[in-house]
Specification:
heterodimer, A: 222 residues, alpha/beta, Rossmann fold, four-stranded mixed sheet, 6 helices, 27% helix, B: 490 residues, six-stranded parallel sheet, 22 helices
Chain lengths: 222, 490
């Protein structure tokens, strides 16, 4: 099989080179200009960016709670009650100060949680994020601090995400720039979440919560 | 169930289109779907002031990749391997299927979960797996519907758009044995929740997942998947082994280039500002997601496309489906008439090039050349230009292979036309003769029925009659008159 692989690779590369005989031998990739004269940064004020982000989330029917950091436990407790949840799943490094007292909490610590534990019905996940994008109402997770493994934010029915206002960027290119190190230095997996999962596959009528969390609540703190 | 693109001559588009036009349900669904998505797309594109700059940057990026594809492929391979993945090269569908099948078998797996992927449809992977005793579960809702119905996708973004809710409910009752059929109504939400429940069990037990690739970043070895339902995240996160199949053209040079395509693709495909989930992974991450990653790089005719300097732009396609939604032909006939995994305007230029023009010679004609596809394409593929170019190839191929070149009526007619148009005097003479010859067929300056074998052409078109005076004759007469007037006044 190794031999087959080597010959397939050589043959494909030689087919490619044959196909590109019209490309001058001394042409380098950089000789093809890519004009990046599209918008690199939003020009809105901080408050406008935050407002746009909130509007986009509301478009997605996500819950938005603009609160102070000290109010996180109360907000979480209220959501837990509202959705009648049994448990809260979270990465190991979520601060105690974010948690309401008397709530069963499953931390993904030294002993990783099983998929069954994470996905038990009526559970929610609590994470923070790497950054967020106002233009598209997206939350980006890169497995960095307070975010944990990808499966944590995937199997529970509800997702609660703490976003600091200064983590919100205006445009997609700003977020991509910020994620560069996570990709190039640490090879971290990146997930963009823009509202709850949805399908329009049956007669184009939109149904949310296909797989993954059915509800997204964002706790927006200064 | 899939239409594999290998050594097969496709049915004539015109005949398939006629069949499809008779299906009123299909036409109704398609008309509604294309119009809805078109309107949504237009709304979200209008709010991006730098849309044209993004399109141009995307086009330039794709041109750079295509002209230096060999270097980028090697760079991608190195980066993926460095990040802990394995890379395989497949010349064609058979080779790709063999690689994937042996990988699945190596893990003693008898089922795999799949993310919606056109490239695995193209290579007929599900059939190949089935032959090896491996069951492939399509996990995108529409693909699952199509798979359960043993049908083919009819649209690249909403593949089951030809089915209505009653048909889908019936299908689920008959095929999802772990779901209580009595609870299944026609309500889309109920149906979606049934699919969720059914698939959750499968996601949690599957050992191997198979995906296509939206973007492969040469610089970092990162692979990107764009999706809506979360079935993609399930497949990319839960199984131990992930196998991704990537057409060699899906490369972008750098991570930064993603900023362009993540703005263009969701708005063009589903009319969303961003689709619900985008996943990027770079090799293998310890303790998070699949601990084995295999990337299969597939040629399967792509280097044939690359060899044509005009046709190669078809490889820029990012599979958004926007050209389908604006195409007056697609809107009426739907995806099945194209007899290929790749339907619509992009399919009409991609399929003949992947397969060889002789195997799909009717597809370049599946267009009115109105140009709406070019205008809407987020990476500015000039589809009408390639269609015309391919039509030229069809004619040349036909002329070369013609057995009775001297008696073929179309060829004779074209040769005669060439002879006439070569010489202005011949043309003038023919025009004079035509003015007389057309009299029995002309009504109010319009010819609506031509005689004999030409009748087929005029069955759907009206022809303007040859005017009483040609431009040359009019000009000549005018000059004569001027000269005459001039002498008179002097």
């Amino acid at each position: 099989m190794e031999q087959l692989r080597a010959s397939a690779k050589d043959e494909i590369l030689s087919r490619v080179r044959n196909a590109l005989r019209d490309v001058p031998a001394d042409e380098l990739p950089e000789h093809i200009t890519i004009e990046r004269n599209y918008r690199q940064r939003g020009e809105e004020t901080r408050e406008e960016i935050v407002q746009l982000f909130i509007n986009r989330l509301e478009d997605y029917n996500a819950g938005v709670h603009r609160i102070r950091e000290a109010e996180i436990p109360a907000s979480v407790a209220q959501l837990v009650e509202q959705y009648a949840l049994n448990q809260l799943v979270m990465p190991a490094d979520i601060p105690e100060a974010w948690l309401p007292v008397d709530l069963p909490v499953l931390r993904d610590g030294q002993t990783p949680l099983t998929n069954e534990q994470i996905g038990e019905s009526n559970s929610a996940v609590l994470t923070a994020c790497a950054n967020a994008i106002a233009q598209t109402g997206s939350i980006v997770l890169d497995g960095g601090p307070l975010q944990g493994r990808r499966v944590l934010s995937l199997l529970p029915d509800y997702a609660f995400c703490v976003v600091r206002e200064d983590q919100i960027v205006g445009l997609v290119p700003e977020a991509i720039t910020q994620l560069r190190d996570a990709i190039t230095q640490r090879h971290q997996p990146i997930t963009f979440i823009s509202g709850p999962s949805a399908t329009s596959d049956i007669e184009l009528s939109r149904v949310v919560g296909v797989h993954g969390p059915r509800h997204l609540d964002v706790l927006l703190i200064p | 169930m899939s239409v594999s693109l290998r050594n097969q001559r496709l049915p004539m588009f015109q005949q398939e289109a006629r069949k499809a036009l008779g299906d009123t349900q299909l036409r109704h669904n398609l008309g509604k779907a294309t119009q809805t998505i078109r309107n949504k797309r237009n709304r979200v594109v209008a709010e991006v002031p730098d849309w044209e700059q993004l399109r141009e940057a995307a086009r330039q990026t794709k041109v750079r990749v295509e002209r230096h594809l060999d270097a980028y492929l090697l760079q991608l391979e190195e980066a993926v391997v460095q990040a802990g993945g394995k890379v395989y090269w497949a010349r064609d569908a058979i080779e790709a299927n063999a690689i994937i099948t042996s990988l699945v078998r190596m893990h003693n797996a008898y089922e795999v979960v799949k993310i919606k992927s056109m490239v695995t449809d193209e290579i007929g992977l599900n059939d190949a797996l089935a032959q090896a005793g491996i069951q492939a579960h399509e996990t995108d809702l529409a693909e699952m519907i199509v798979q359960l119905a043993d049908d083919n996708p009819s649209h690249i973004v909403v593949p089951a758009i030809h089915k209505n809710r009653a048909q889908i409910a019936e299908l689920f009752r008959a095929s999802l044995h772990d779901i209580d059929g009595t609870k299944l109504s026609d309500d889309p939400r109920t149906l979606v929740m049934a699919a969720r429940e059914h698939l959750r069990t499968i996601f949690l037990r599957a050992k191997v997942a198979i995906s296509g690739v939206n973007f492969g970043v040469a610089e970092t070895g990162s692979i990107g998947i764009v999706e809506s339902e979360g079935n993609g995240r399930m497949c990319l996160t839960l199984p131990e082994v992930l196998i991704s199949v990537m057409g060699i053209e899906k490369i972008v040079p750098t991570w930064r280039d993603i900023e362009v395509f993540l703005q263009l693709l969701p708005r063009s495909a589903t009319g969303e500002r961003m689709n619900p989930y985008n996943s990027f992974w770079t090799g293998v991450q310890k303790g998070d997601g699949p601990q084995e990653f295999h990337l299969v790089l597939l040629d399967n005719g792509r280097t044939n496309v690359l060899a044509d300097p005009i046709g190669r732009q078809a490889l820029h396609c990012i599979r958004c489906g926007a050209c389908l939604n604006v195409c007056p032909v697609y809107e009426r006939v739907g995806g099945h008439a194209y007899s290929s995994v790749y339907p619509g305007p992009i399919g009409a230029i991609l399929t003949p090039q992947l397969l060889g023009i002789e195997n799909a010679s009717s597809l370049p004609y599946a267009s009115t050349l109105c140009g709406a596809c070019y205008e809407t394409c987020p990476v500015k593929i000039n589809i009408p230009e390639v269609l015309l170019h391919l039509r030229g190839q069809v004619v040349r191929a036909k002329q070369q292979n013609m057995l009775h070149r001297d008696t073929d009526p179309e060829n004779l007619a074209m040769q005669a036309a060439l002879y006439i148009f070569e010489d202005p005097q011949r043309l003038a003479l023919v025009q004079k003769l035509a003015r007389i010859g057309q009299i029995p067929f002309t009504h109010n300056g319009v010819i609506s029925q031509l005689p004999g074998p030409l009748g087929g052409w005029s069955s759907a078109r009206n022809l303007q009659s040859v005017p009483k005076q040609s431009f040359r004759e009019w000009w000549h007469a005018r000059e004569q008159e001027k000269k005459h007037d001039g002498t008179a006044t002097r």
